[in-house]
Amino acid sequence: MASELSLVDIVAGYGRAAPVLRGFSVEVPAGKIVCLVGPNGAGKSTVLKVAGGLLKPRDGKVLVGGEDVTGRGPQAMLAAGVSLVLQGHSVFREMTVEENVLLGAYTLRDKALLSKRVAFVKEVFPVVADRWGSLAGLLSGGQQKQVEFARSLMVDPKVVLLDEPSMGLDPKATGTVFEQVVRMRDAGTAVLLVEQNARRALETADLGCVLDLGRVHISGPASELLADPQLGELYLGGRPAEPGVKPKI
Ligand SMILES: Nc1ncnc2c1ncn2[C@@H]1O[C@H](COP(=O)(O)OP(=O)(O)OP(=O)(O)O)[C@@H](O)[C@H]1O
Fold first, then answer.
1. Closest CA to ligand 1's atom 31
2. Which residues form the ABC transporter domain (predicted)?
């Protein structure tokens, strides 16, 4: 299957310091969730910054839908079909859910298309439909994250980049947020996900990629990475779960 996002042999870093990414590659196919795993400081967020156009790579290529978009800035990356949902909360609490979601569509001029996108995100995220007229600040943390997801899908992106979507959420809200990530995937979006809670994220993802020392240490189906005892000890905070036990999300 052709990838919506390809990062090829990326070398990237900050200022004059040694590069953080030293020949990193990943493929994110349409309708799949790819989870990046790795120790603190390995460069997971740096990968998202490169993919989202916030950090220009020193070397390597970024392809979106097969088109070479290397070196483009964040707006051009959004126009190319890459939507970034940042770490932490970025809803405007004193604005309504509707106003927050429509912020994601400020580039859409076509009214008919706009209503189609609104109908679509309301269908994918029921909470957004239910609380459309409410002030976003009145929603729970998990619900606010869904408003951010809805905003990111307004431009009908090919790829969504999610940086730690469960940060600051309790386990129940985390479960809901992962359910919504699956709904994005099922709607055909390619998802590149970074999560502190690596085991939980891999349980949700289709594919996993372990990043260490600026390169891919190992990649493959998420279920295989989860079942690997050595990876479990090194990167996932302990031994794998009992085989066949799926988490409730
Ligand atoms: N804006 C920046 N300026 C300089 N160095 C940075 C900057 N952002 C990150 N770094 C450095 O780049 C390296 C990789 O950071 P990055 O945030 O990508 O790692 P990470 O794998 O996402 O880490 P974590 O799991 O702790 O969030 C770290 O050594 C970090 O100190």
1. 41
2. 5-238
